[in-house]
């Protein structure tokens, strides 16, 4: 039984918001561990998308009202991927607040937002500033 539970736990991708990666789940305050597989839902921060001109590599930030995480992905992004839109990435948490994504899912149309992202955004109405603006002043 313990072996089965261990195997299942190793293959479960838990859902987090950017704020939960930084500060832990509300219920437990437990932070995800580096190397953990997870899904992260948030909004693509305007001004954060950086594409490598020589490959399919792209880096961007996902945010909610509590913070932002950086995402690296290599592959073809969904047609509906845009700055300011809700996405869910599936991948591995690297050190700090960096996610190495194996998959990026964008919302299906202008009226759909993934349920986890919708709930997180309703709970956190504030939004951070653009990634390309200095907010220190």
From TrEMBL:
GO terms for biological process: cytochrome complex assembly; protein-heme linkage. It comes from the Bacteria. The keyword Transport does not apply. Signal peptide: none annotated. It comes from Salmonella enteritidis. This is Cytochrome c maturation protein CcmE. One of its GO terms (cellular component) is plasma membrane. Gene3D superfamilies: Nucleic acid-binding proteins (2.40.50.140). Heme binds at residues 108, 112. Residues 106-137 are annotated as: Disordered. Its main location: membrane. Keywords: Cell inner membrane, Cell membrane, Cytochrome c-type biogenesis, Heme, Iron, Membrane, Metal-binding, Signal-anchor, Transmembrane, Transmembrane helix. The gene is ccmE. It is found in: Cell inner membrane. The keyword Heme applies. One of its GO terms (molecular function) is metal ion binding. Heme chaperone required for the biogenesis of c-type cytochromes. Transiently binds heme delivered by CcmC and transfers the heme to apo-cytochromes in a process facilitated by CcmF and CcmH. Pfam families: CcmE.
């Amino acid at each position: 039984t313990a072996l089965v539970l261990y195997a299942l736990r190793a293959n479960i991708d838990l859902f987090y918001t950017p704020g939960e990666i930084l500060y832990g789940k509300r219920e437990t305050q437990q932070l995800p561990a580096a190397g953990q597989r997870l899904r992260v839902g948030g909004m693509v921060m305007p001004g954060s998308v950086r594409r490598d001109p020589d490959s399919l590599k792209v880096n961007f930030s996902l945010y909610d009202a509590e913070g932002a995480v950086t995402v690296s992905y290599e592959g073809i992004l969904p047609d509906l991927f845009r700055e300011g839109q809700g996405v869910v990435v599936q991948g591995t948490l690297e050190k700090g607040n960096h996610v190495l994504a194996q998959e990026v899912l964008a919302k299906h149309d202008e009226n759909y937002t993934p349920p986890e992202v919708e709930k997180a955004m309703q709970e956190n109405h504030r939004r951070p500033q653009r990634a390309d603006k200095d907010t220190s002043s």
